[in-house]
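Recap from last week: sequence in, structure out.
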Amino acid sequence: MHKRIYLSSPTMHDLEMIYIQEAFDTNWVAPLGKNVDEFEKEMASFIGIGHAAALISGTSALHLAIKLCGVKPGDLVFCSDLTFSATVNPVSYEGGLQVFIDSERETWNMDPLALQKAFEMHPNPKAVIVANLYGTPAKLDEIKAICDKHNVPLIEDAAESLGATYKGKQTGMFGKYSALSLVVLKNKTRKEYTGIMEKSSKAA
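Predicted structure tokens:
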């Protein structure tokens, strides 16, 4: 008989069981409760950004970011070309059009030179979405500088890079909006959390 090997079997003990019981005892099963509020504050503090909001999925966080950037039908959004489909699907949800930016060889993420070239060809995109693939940060300072130069908001898909740093700073703090995830099926195993990070309280 073969022993079953679980991909990401959950474990609940010690503090987890205490917090689960507390949620039932205080009737905060839905929609939210103080644990979520405190977790959002702790996550924002860990990343080094002003505010965070927990959502149901990383895709939801990216979709919210796209809406906050005001993407409408026909608008262009520059996107990483080597990524999971959820990075770019929300652009289609709002009727936008993806312009895929090629990757560079060092990190396999968005190439700043290709991004600059895209701005020369299409000077008015509504947003730029950069993904930190496999937990490796893109060249975020260069990409952010290009976006700032053109006054276009940067959305950082940091779903695979929570805990990774770039030049001493946590990923998730470089975009105007950033999506993070602790879903166990990400490339680095972690517990469930998805959310959007934002530098001001208005969006969060």
